[in-house]
């Protein structure tokens, strides 16, 4: 025991643990401290006590009981609330973390465990050469996924060894900045716009980066699919409740990894959380495009998103194209693709704005001229509960964001039979190209739910024009908007992919084609068709996309993914205030949808554009949102923490503020203001 006269009556003992990499080193040190000693002084005393020459600059104190970092080195122990019973660990802030990427490859890299997740993800994306890091986040694997994997490992006789790409030597933001060569937006293309491989002029840049040319290819190029057996072992959600579990593990962007219980060498999923892919450019975004494509591909294969059989075959045909390197396009052909497809791809990818060299600029005058209208004969289908659907032809006029219909063309000067305001409605394609069925399903919000209306068009051109007008009107835009014509072209392009014809070459000997069709479709279709049947049908669809470059094929896949009715919806199980049963809440980039859990039918849609404010009552964990016209909702989240939904809403609103005029820097303060909440 030390006497009080030796150290002073106001001193006390503090036991500190040091996280040494060397197991033989002493782990615990007892220091005599005072309450007015600041954190920086405590670090200095500890390092002097350790008496080992090494770089301690990355070390900081982690307070185990409070689950927080003591990073403000000028604060005193008293101000921090540190007393003799505190367990402080002196540990590196950057630790190894295993990340499973969307393409199912695992990378191991050093990540800051002390900065907020938003900043950590930004640093990760710099290392991986992924622009727009605000679109991604980190996700804990769901419990069901882990259970299935453990069961698989238990049944396996041989130990499973995972091929991990080690990037632990990559520079981190707290020390040297990440290598700017491949990440900065320069005038020189970084990737070949057609193949996605590193451009020859930039390969020399890899010498200074942790991403060698080979490693970059692992991230930017696609490889053959996994085996059907491996696909069968992976977790596949069957219900909306299952899909809700997939979104329960998003980490809080406003807190650090350590604060959320993540430990060194843990595995997390790096995923695109927000489905608004901004400023995609094949010359700079080969890794980003490939990872979006892979996330879409696995969502299709594991049936995380529903699609029709016709659409599944389209996805299979494009997948069969992407791993193939047999087609060699001439430089002229590549240039043609890059120049002529700009507007089409830009529209086809909806919010994916693909800027390729030589693209045509939009006519600025389009937005200020008279608003055009559509007038045509369409068939109106109204579902009836006690009888067959009533189908009747009417004269339809589409003006502004509304559809009016009349008995015939001659009566169009008078009052319409009904006028439908499409602002805020749900627009769902109802198309079967083979059967010449071109339908548009409209779910129009009314006081007590959604009013269902079906429109039937006669041909592809008519469908594309009316569908594009409906999609824009649902967002509050008219046909005068510059995105109308590209939207029409996008729809026609997608229909063209569906409208395949069987060539004699494809049908003659499908068994001679080296293809495992089970790798390109979900298990449902593997069970429904024999291998030869699937091969033949995939080859049918392949005829329309066989001449595409690798990057264009991926963009087409993303386009088709975006065209699915459920695209971009993240599901959560909630209980609305005043309701006696659970519902599913779908969160999208521009709206919230209340969905009946039993039937899967949408009940009500609320647009972010009509939202006045939202907040969280942290005591009862209830999210409350106010909309225009005195509409307000409140709900508690049952399948995840309410902070996740709060962050989703704020995150999408933050992403809507981006513009091409801004530089690459992010307004991190605004993001946290919109997403952080006040707990």
TrEMBL record:
It is found in: Cell junction; Cell projection. Keywords: Cell adhesion, Cell junction, Cell projection. Signal peptide: none annotated. The keyword Phosphoprotein does not apply. One of its GO terms (biological process) is integrin-mediated signaling pathway. GO terms for molecular function: integrin binding. It holds the Pfam family Kindlin_2_N. InterPro entries: Band_41_domain, FERM_2, FERM_central, FERM_CS, Kindlin/fermitin, Kindlin_2_N, PH-like_dom_sf, PH_domain. It comes from the Eukaryota. Residues 379-475 form the PH domain. GO terms for cellular component: cell projection; focal adhesion. The keyword Ubl conjugation does not apply. Belongs to the kindlin family. This is FERM1 protein. The lineage of its organism: Eukaryota, Metazoa, Chordata, Craniata, Vertebrata.
């Amino acid at each position: 025991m030390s006497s009080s006269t030796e150290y002073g009556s106001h001193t006390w003992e503090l036991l500190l643990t040091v996280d040494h990499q060397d197991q033989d080193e002493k782990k615990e040190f007892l220091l005599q401290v005072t309450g007015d000693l600041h954190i920086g002084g405590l670090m200095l005393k500890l390092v002097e006590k350790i008496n080992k020459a090494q770089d301690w600059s990355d070390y900081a104190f982690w307070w185990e009981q409070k689950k927080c970092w003591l990073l403000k080195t000028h604060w005193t122990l008293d101000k921090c609330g540190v007393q003799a019973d505190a367990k402080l660990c002196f540990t590196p802030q950057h630790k190894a973390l295993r990340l499973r990427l969307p393409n199912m490859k695992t990378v191991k890299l050093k990540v800051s465990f002390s900065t907020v997740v938003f900043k950590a993800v930004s640093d990760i994306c710099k290392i991986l050469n992924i622009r727009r890091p605000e679109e991604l986040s980190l996700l804990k694997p769901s419990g069901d996924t882990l259970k299935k994997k453990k069961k698989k490992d238990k049944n396996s006789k041989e130990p499973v060894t995972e091929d991990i790409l080690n990037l632990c030597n990559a520079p981190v933001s707290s020390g040297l900045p990440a290598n700017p060569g491949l990440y900065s937006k320069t005038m020189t293309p970084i990737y070949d716009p057609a193949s996605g491989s590193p451009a020859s002029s930039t390969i020399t840049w890899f010498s200074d980066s942790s991403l060698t040319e080979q490693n970059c290819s692992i991230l930017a190029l696609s490889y053959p699919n996994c085996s059907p057996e491996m696909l069968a072992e992976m977790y596949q959600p069957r219900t909306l409740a299952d899909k809700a579990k997939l979104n329960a593990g998003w980490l809080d962007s406003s807190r650090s990894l350590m604060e959320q219980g993540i430990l060194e060498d843990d595995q997390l999923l790096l995923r695109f959380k927000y489905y608004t892919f901004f400023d995609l450019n094949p010359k700079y975004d080969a890794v980003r495009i490939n990872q979006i494509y892979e996330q879409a591909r696995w969502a299709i294969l594991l049936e995380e998103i529903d699609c029709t059989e016709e659409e599944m075959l389209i996805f299979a045909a494009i997948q069969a194209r992407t791993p193939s390197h047999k087609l060699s396009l001439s430089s002229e052909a590549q240039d043609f693709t890059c120049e002529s497809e700009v507007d089409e791809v830009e529209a086809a990818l909806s919010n994916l704005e693909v800027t390729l060299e030589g693209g045509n600029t939009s006519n600025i005058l389009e937005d200020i001229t008279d608003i055009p209208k559509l007038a045509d004969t369409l068939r109106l289908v109204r579902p009836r509960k006690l009888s067959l659907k009533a189908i009747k032809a009417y004269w339809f006029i589409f003006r502004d964001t509304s559809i009016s219909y009349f008995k015939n063309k001659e009566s169009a000067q008078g009052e319409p039979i009904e006028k439908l305001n499409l602002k805020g409605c749900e627009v769902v394609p109802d198309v079967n190209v083979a059967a010449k069925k071109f339908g548009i399903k409209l779910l129009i919000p009314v006081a007590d739910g959604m009013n269902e209306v079906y429109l039937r068009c006669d041909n592809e051109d008519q469908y594309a024009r009316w569908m594009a007008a409906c999609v824009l009107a649902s967002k509050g835009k008219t046909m005068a908007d510059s995105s109308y014509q590209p939207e029409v072209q996008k729809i026609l392009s997608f229909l063209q992919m569906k409208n395949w014809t069987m060539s004699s070459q494809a049908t003659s000997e499908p068994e001679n084609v080296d293809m495992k069709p089970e790798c390109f479709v979900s298990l449902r279709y593997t069970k429904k068709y024999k291998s030869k049947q699937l091969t033949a049908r995939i080859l049918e669809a392949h005829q329309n996309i066989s001449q595409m470059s690798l990057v264009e094929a991926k963009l087409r896949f993303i386009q088709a993914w975006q065209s699915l009715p459920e695209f971009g919806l993240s599901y959560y199980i909630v209980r609305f205030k005043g309701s006696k049963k659970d519902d599913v809440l779908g969160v999208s980039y521009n709206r919230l949808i209340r969905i009946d859990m039993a039937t899967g039918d949408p009940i009500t849609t609320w647009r972010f554009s009509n939202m006045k404010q939202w907040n969280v009552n942290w005591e009862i964990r209830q999210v409350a949102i106010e909309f225009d016209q005195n509409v307000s909702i409140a709900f508690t989240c049952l399948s995840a923490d309410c902070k996740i939904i709060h962050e989703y809403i704020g995150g999408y609103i933050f992403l809507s503020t981006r513009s091409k005029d801004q530089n690459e820097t992010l307004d991190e303060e605004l993001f946290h203001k919109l997403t952080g909440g006040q707990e």
